[in-house]
Amino acid sequence: MPNYHATMKDFGDSMIFTQGRYYEKIIDEKPVYKKFSGENIGFERSNVKELCASKKIESAIFAVLKNYINEVGDCTPMGFDIPVYVYKINKKPDIDISDTAKGDFALIEEVRYRNLESNPINSQKCLEIQIPDNVLLDIELCYLYSNGGIDNVINEWGEEVKKAIKYYIKNNQYPKNILKSNEQFKSKIKQYI
């Protein structure tokens, strides 16, 4: 089963990943919390470079856009569509944390590849798309402090955003307001306010 890695830079029709980045520390396929005075304050940082990917295209797009928000510190729409390039990986991952209950790993269906320097990952571009910039705010709303969710991740909202991304891929339409596009979900949002 393929996995997908999305970027905001076009690397051409194929890409060989030879370098990773440092992400959350994973031991025995479980993320490790950082603790302070007995309280969880995020995740420990790994000392192993990895390539993150997702099990579905819409999850990979969600993940790269959330990483963009984290890097720039802003989810304000930019006034133009966002280019996203998705690369398909046909190699079994070293780590599968897509079913962990911590953080947003299940939401983005995350898998990881290790040892890229000695075991590069080949990929093929399978999608090139311009995503409307209002998706940034929808993604960030998944991470607001709330009375619900897991580790302050509102998974139900995230799933609706991923459905909207998938719909956009197929139909070239993204809802201006996800709440209006999904009346069934609208009543549930109150539990998080």
Biggest sheet, strands in spatial order? 1-9-12-2
Beta strands, count: 12
Structural Rg:
17 Å
Quaternary status: single chain
Distance between the termini: 38 Å
- Structural class by SSE content: alpha+beta
> Percentage of helical residues?
10-25%
Query: How many separate domains?
Result: 1
Tell me, briefly, the overall form. globular
Proportion in β-strands: 25-35%
Question: Count of DSSP helices?
Answer: 5
Element-level helix/strand string: EEEEEEEEHEEEEHHHH
Written overview of the protein:
The structure is a single chain. This protein is α+β, with helices and mostly antiparallel strands and 193 residues long. It has one domain (3-192). The chain contains 5 helices and 12 strands. A 4-stranded antiparallel sheet has the order 1-9-12-2. A 4-stranded antiparallel sheet has the order 3-8-11-10. It has a two-stranded antiparallel sheet with strand order 4-5. Strand 4 (26-27) and strand 5 form a beta hairpin. Helix 1 (57-72) packs across helix 3. It is globular, with a radius of gyration of 17 Å.
Short descriptors:
alpha+beta; 32% strand; globular; disordered C terminus; 5 helices; 193 residues; four-stranded antiparallel beta sheet; 24% helix; 12 strands
How would you summarize what this structure contains?
This protein has 193 residues and is α+β, with helices and mostly antiparallel strands. It has helices spanning 57-72, 135-140, 155-171, 178-181, 183-186; strands at 3-7, 14-17, 21-24, 26-27, 30-31, 33-36, 39-43, 45-54, 82-89, 95-96, 110-114, 121-131.
